[in-house]
Amino acid sequence: MLRLIGIVMSIGLADSVNPSTLAPALYLAAGEHAKVRVLEFTLGVFGASLLGGLIVALGPGELLIHLVPHPRPILGYWLELLAGAVLLVGGMLLWRYRKVLSARELPTLSTTRRRSTVLFGAGIMFVEMPTAFPYFAAIATVVGSARSVTHAVLLLVLYNVCFILPLIAIVLVLWLSPHHARAVLNRAREIVQRNWAPIFALVLTLAGLFVIILGATGVASHAHNGFGHFARKLHHLIT
To answer: How many CB atoms lie within 10 A of CB 124?
Structure first.
C-alpha cells in the first residue's frame, strides 16, 4: 500500500504542473476577489477531476476488481511499468514540441461573473479528461493493485489533493501575503507562459522514470537468480 501511495503521489505531483489549471488560477489571482475566486476555481477543478476518476474507477475499474479480486503482485508491477511508460512518452512528446506549445496562449477566464468560477474550473477538467494520460495511468495502477474499491477511492482522493497543491499554494499566497501576492503571482504567470512545456516535460519524465524503476524492480524481483536478489534489495530500498 505504501508503494501505491508513493506512485499516486508522484504522478499527481507531476501532473499538477499543468498549464490548463495553473494559468487560469494565476489569471484569477490578479483580478478582483482573487482569494475567493481562486479558491472556487480550485474546488471546481478538484471536484470535477475526482468525479471523472471515480466514474472510470468505479465503472470498468470496479468490474476489473471483481474479476480479479486477489491479483498477483506481479500484475501490479506490470501496470506500474505501463503507467511509467505513459508518463515517459508524454514527457518526451512535450519536450519534442515544447517550442510550439509554449507559443500558444494559455486558457483564461473572460467573464467577470463570480458564479462561473467553479464551473470554469470544472469545465476545464471535463474537457481535459479524455486526454489526461497521467491520470489514466494512475487510475490503471490503482485499480490493478488496490485491495478494494475503498482503497482505490482513497488513492484517487490522494491523487487529486496532490494535483491541486499548486492551486492551494496560490490561495495561501493570496491569504498570507496579500500586499505582495500580485507581483509574485504575475511573475509566476509569466514563467508558466514561457516555460510550461519544458518544465512539464521534465517533471513527467522524472516521474515516469521513477514509476518505471518501481515496476521494473518489482517484476525482476520474481527472478530466482542473482539479478532477482539485487532487484529485490533495490525495490525494498526505494519503497
So the answer is: 22
The C-alpha atoms of residue 33 and residue 65 are separated, in whole angstroms, by: 45
CA distance 10 to 168: 17
Radius of gyration of the chain (CA): 19
- Answer left, alpha or beta for residue 107, where phi above 0 means left and psi between -120 and 50 means alpha: beta
- Over residues 138-154, the pLDDT tens digits come to 887 787 766 677 888 89
How many Cα atoms within 13 Å fall on the side-chain side of residue 97?
Answer: 7
pTM value surpassing 0.85: no
Question: How far, in Å, CA of 131 to CA of 93, rounded?
Answer: 13
C-alpha cell at 122: 470544472
Q: What are φ and ψ of residue 122, in 5° steps?
A: -65, -40
Low-confidence residues of the chain: pLDDT under 50: 69-70, 111-112
In whole angstroms, what is the distance from residue 138 CA to residue 182 CA?
Answer: 34
Report the distance separating Cα 151 and Cα 128, nearest Å.
25
For residue 115, report the phi and psi dihedrals to the nearest 5 degrees.
Answer: -65, -15
What pLDDT shows up at residue 112? 45
The pLDDT, as a whole number, for residue 64 is 53
Which H or E element spans position 220? helix 178-220
How many whole angstroms from its chain centre is CA 188? 20
